[in-house]
Amino acid sequence: MKFSEIRTLLTECLRHAPGRTWLLLILTPLGAVTPGLTALGLQWIVDGVLTGSRPLLIGGALCAATAGAFVLAGGRVMQVQAGLLGNEVGTVLDRRIIRWCATLPTTAHLEDTESLRRIEQIRGLGGRTVTTGLAGLNVVQSGLWLVITTILLAGVHPVLLALPLFAVPSILLTRTTSRRTEAARAETAERNRAEQHLFTTITEANSAKELRLGTSGAHAAAIARRLREERAAILGRATLTVGGLTLIGSLIFVAAFLGALYLTVQLALSGAVSPGALLLVATLGGQIRGQLDLLTHALTLAGRGLTMAGHYLWLRDLYGAGSSGPLSPPGRLRDGITFSGVDFSYGGPPVLRGIDLHLPSGATVALVGDHGSGKTTLVKLLCGFYQPTNGTITVDGTPLTEMDPTAWRERMTSAFQDFSRFPFLAREAVGVGHLPGMHEIAEAAEKGGAAQVFARLPEGEETRLGKALGDGVELSGGQWQKVALSRAFMRSTPLLAVLDEPTAALDAASEYEVYRRYAEAAQEWQHATGGITLLVSHRFATIRMADLIVVLDGGRIIERGTHAKLIALGGRYAHLYDLQASAYQ
Prior knowledge:
CATH superfamily of the largest domain: ABC transporter type 1, transmembrane domain
Strand order of the largest sheet: 6-7-8-3-9-10
Mean pLDDT: 82
Strand content: 5-15%
CATH topology of the largest domain: ABC transporter transmembrane region fold
Shape: elongated
Distance between the termini: 71 Å
Structural class: alpha/beta
Order of helices and strands: HHHHHHHHHHEEEHEEHEHHHHEHEHEEHH
Helix content: 55-70%
């Protein structure tokens, strides 16, 4: 258990629900006194009856009544307050978690298996983290109770001091089982995520078409079933191991408890202790077993809560590390964007190697190359989704890593082939391209073609799109793409516009119209901000309009220049251009 996780949970609870937190902190030690008070009260009652002592009877009755009242009332109060505290503080943590996940400056974690595993465990984490973390109070309470129990047992006979020690093996084994349980959960998290993804694939309309036509639905279901069976087997083995270790610990303590009872009986028969002492030892011994169960359960829950808190801190640190750029982008590009000796790898072989490239301000630049040549990776680096493995990217001489990523992206606009289909109201699906202008989408919708789509919807711009958030209207692929293209027109003064195969789902006439409008917009951006338009496309009729064409192959730049220059060069670009041109002859 790490101090940072404990400190984080306690700090958040005190900040957002101080009254409930302090109440729990106060009631916790009182709860530790209750079991011992019950045992002591029963001893005094028995001894008072046998000896006819009125003070012992009254004192014992008061002790037992006080303990009973706290068990009935105090325990319930603690349970209710802990639930309310988990709900209140957990809601705050959940809001942060979803905000951090939605606004993380980079996307590298979304393509890393270990990060995806942690994100899977983070989902819905807030309330569970606080509730399970509060089990640490139960650990403290049980620890205090063991101290009180030890003192009471020592009053009967010093040998009985050893009885609580026999609980130590069970506690140690419980910690072992807790770690094994968490390890099993972590080991199966990726399988659980994959199974959920397959279930989504099987039940979504887009993927269902291919599964039906390929008669491969049963194959996908079989993979999901295998993942579920593997997960169940791992968790099952962990459960058997946990059960066996827990049984061993319990048997050790039961043997010691029987020995303690035998010793106390002998002491009572010899007159060394009162008969009530036997009831004290029996009560405390029985409580040790029950408290031990509570302690083991609390240790398990607390360990799980602190593990969850560790995931929360990991996400917080990941968010903070990517949000530290102190500088703002320039209001206008004077020189442009420069790559200097840039290498990049996703963890395996290099994807980009030695990229030296200058994107002049106001220019339209096209990236050309086969699939896997590094075009999309270069775009990701420009957007700040990843950091170069080596080398630097500068904007008018300022390293991109020193800029506030949010501020940089506010000066960008983009349209991608793998666009998102946001299940929002139609106007919102365009307006999210620039939140400050959410209610001023008319011009962007007209330029991108979404206005034509909205005109055919039953409630126009107020129609909900898709089925994910309700009974919305589903659009065709081309219609969705027009909505995505319109989002890209929401920002009127970008420093960088990225168009990555943005018209793949459109017919030829719509594609021509979109590029015509982008060409007009590029001229506006050039004059307004010195903005750069970066175009990734396989359609050479579009590419030839660029001021600079960059040809990538195997992660390296092999050619660069204008269309005319590259055709005259007779290299890779000229070959690709001739291949495409011949297809239309």
